[in-house]
Every structure is written in structure tokens, then in C-alpha cells.
Amino acid sequence: xxxxxxxxxxxxHYSFLSACTETAGELATQVFIIGxxxxxxxxxxxxxxxxxxxxxxxxxxxxxxxxxLGVKNVTVFKNFGTAHFRYQExxxxxxxxxxESYERNSRKPTVFTGxxxxxxxxxxxxxxxxxxxxxxxxxxxxxxTYGGMIDIENKLIRTPIDPFITFDDDPLRIMxxxxxxxxxxxxxxxxxxxxxxxxxxxxxxxxxxxxxxEFLKILSSDAPATGLIQLYKSGVLEIIFPEIANLAxxxxxxxxxxxxxxxxxxxxxxxxxxxxxxIWLRFAALVHDIAKPQTKKFVEGTGWTFHGHEELGARMIKxxxxxxxxxxxxxxxxxxxxxxxxxxxxxxxEEVTDSAIRRLIVAAGEDLAxxxxxxxxxxxxxxxxxxxxxxxxxxxxMKKVWEVEDKDKLRAFQSPVNGEEIMRICNLSPSRQVGEIxxxxxxxxxxxxxxxxxxxALAYLMEIKRIML
Length: 469
Ligand code: ATP
Ligand code: MG
Known about the structure:
Structural class: alpha+beta
Distance between the termini: 102 Å
Strand order of the largest sheet: 3-4-5-2-1-8-9
Largest sheet: 7 strands, mixed
Bound molecules: adenosine-5'-triphosphate, magnesium ion
């Protein structure tokens, strides 16, 4: 079904597009904007990447069009029949209409020249099949072959053709489905989920880099749990990230059950995503309880325990990073956050010593603020009173941290009355006594008996001189 809707007025903002119409006229071809840009235009999202679909030759079109815009740098990929150039802040991509044919063991298709509808059919989701004509006869007209507009309205990820074929041809699309669902906060159509479930093993023909790339896009979205939960329910999570899928489930013994660690983790990830865009801090939130299944133990009279899950979890990070081809320079950061995620709460007690606080400061180093963000996100209780109490605990820990840091800063200071002066005033030669007098002055300052200034320190020296000598 072809619907008539016109986007001419919305395209006015992109005045450089009018030269497309001219180019298409001169080359006697047709050109359309297609895919993500159109989808995002409908959704009111900013997008700086524009894909052009050209009937016949996309690369000739790109060079002629670039000439009209005064752009000299056009990258042409002859083998792929695609071209790219930048104009202002936009990335413009050109491709000739194509038809694809897939082999079982590769997600890279053999490509033939095709028609407009061939090209639409090879696209992954209906919301990505929307096209806008840039041709003279129907400039601005929306071409919605597969009901993409209705799916956008219903916030639904559907495939233009049978999802089993879509996913079987290129299994990366399975990951893309969850990624779009998460980024756009859409649901995935039931049959699409079923196809993802049935064909999830096909993901093994996709490179780890591509899978990880899509996974990190899920983790970067506003509410990653939308994608994570659908990944879990479809059984895809157990293929791409079994350690997280294993967190699901609840055990009951006598009157004790523990909360479902997978759903808890999803909440923690959503919580932290409201606090930070730092993807590695979000990743730490995702894996902070990763070793709970291995450390789970039922203790008579106590209930479920997970002793040592933070240490074992930290030790699992390196292997995980290697397998998922994540950047090695982030291993230490994630390990540290996982290892320390229980420490701040243990320090919330009233009677905690300065040295325990100091050990945390040293262990967390420059990542202490991030650790506290993780701890705050880790609070998923539904009981508001508990939530406020826990949050207050972390504030108290931070207060203690600042106090200890202040004291330590003070410790590193130099007495306002130096050794030379002490020797002169007390008539002493270099000796241990000089050092003792100096530390006595410093202690008096640390204890707040006197201010940290020359006059008070000198007066204090005069006073202790009588007692100490
Ligand atoms: P974004 O750029 O925001 O990630 P997008 O929809 O523009 O989203 P791209 O990867 O830039 O996604 O691809 C552009 C268009 O190409 C898509 O909208 C879709 O129509 C098509 N496409 C991309 N990858 C695939 C694929 N693996 N299978 C089928 N169609 C695809
Ligand atoms: Mg794009």
C-alpha cells in the first residue's frame, strides 16, 4: 500500500537537497532519502547521517551532486557501488538500488542492480524502509511501502518480509532489532521475537565486533533495560552474554528466596543510565553482580548468601573483555568498580575508623565518585523509606571521606615555624628534639588547638618550650 504524505516543508531546513532534484533531472534518474534519516525525521530526532537511494548508479550521482555543492572530497567505493561525502555537519551516503542474494555461511550478500522495491525489500525493519522522494514530480512525498508509519506510531519493530528470512539472510539484524527497540523505546513484534529466538545460533556467523558494537549501543540508550529484557526473553542474551542471562531466576528454600538478580541488574543499569553517559560505568553496573550465581549458598538460619561475589566477579572481567573484544584499557576500571561495590556500604557504620576510610580512598583512587554513583544506582528497593536511608548512608560515607581527605591534606603541610627557627629560638643544635617540637606544633594544628598560621604557631612554641626543654 502506498500512502501519500508530504514532507516538503520539513525538508526546507535542508536547502542543499534541492540540488539533488536537479542532479536527478540531468542524469535522468531518480533519487530518494531512505532509512534512518526519514525514521528520525518522523520521530523528531536529530540525525546528521543521510542515506540516498539512487536508481541505477549511486556513485555518478554522488560526484555530480557534490560538484553542484562545491564539495571536492568524495569517497567512492567502486566495489560496493557506494559513495560518501561530508557537507556542512552532514554525512551523505549514496547507494544505487540493489537486490541481494545470501549464502548460508556469510552475512555478506552478492549484490545485483535492482529496482526501488528490490531495495526496500532488503531492508531490515519497516521503520527503516520509509523513503522520501527528492524527484521533481513528487518532491517531498513519503513512500511507505510496508506500513512503517503505523509501526512508528505503535512503537513496534517489524520486518518488511518474513522475519525468518530477514534474520536468516543477515543475523546481525537480530542484534539491530534489540538495539532499535532500546534506542527508540519500542517493542519487538511477537513473530520477530520468535524468529530471533529460533535463529539466534546464526549469530555465530556474525563477527564479535559487530555484535559488541550493537550491544554497546543498547547499553548507551536512555533506558537499556528495554533492550536487555527483550534480549533475555528471546533467548538471544544467553548466546551473546550468557553470564548476564544466568543471573535470572529465583530460588526458594524454606521461607527464604533471593531477588531475581537479572531484573535487579536491569534496574541498576536503568538507574545508572539516568546518572551517567559513561558507557564503562554503565557496563560496570551491568556486571557488578556477575558472580552471584557461582557464589550463591543457602545458609541454615541466615538464608541466601553470595560471599565473595565481588572478588570473583572482578576476576571474571578480563576473560569477558577478551571474548567480547572490548577495549583492554577499560578492564582495570571495571574490575575495580566490581571489586569495590560493597565497600562503601560497609563503611556507613558510625564507628568506622579513619584508616578504613583511607583504604577505600586509596583503593578507589580517582574513581571514587564513580563508585559512589554505582552504589547509589544499586539501590533498587521499592520501599521509599529504605531508599532514603541507604542514600543517606552513602552521603555519610562521602562526608567521612572528605573529612579524612581534609585531615590528610593538613598532614602533608609544613609547620608555619620551621626547624631553623625552632633551633634558634630554643637554642638547640640539629637533633631529634627539634623534630619532636615541630611535630608537637603540627599536632596542635591538626587537633584544632591552634590555627594554622605563624603567629599562633610561634606563641605555641614559646609555651611548649618551657615544658619540653
Ligand atoms: P543509525 O544510523 O541511527 O544507527 P540507521 O537506520 O540509519 O540507524 P544504518 O546502519 O545507518 O542504520 O543503516 C542505514 C539504513 O540501511 C537502515 O535504515 C536500513 O534501511 C538499512 N540497513 C542497514 N543495515 C542493514 C542490515 N544489516 N540489513 C538490512 N538493512 C540494513
Ligand atoms: Mg544511519
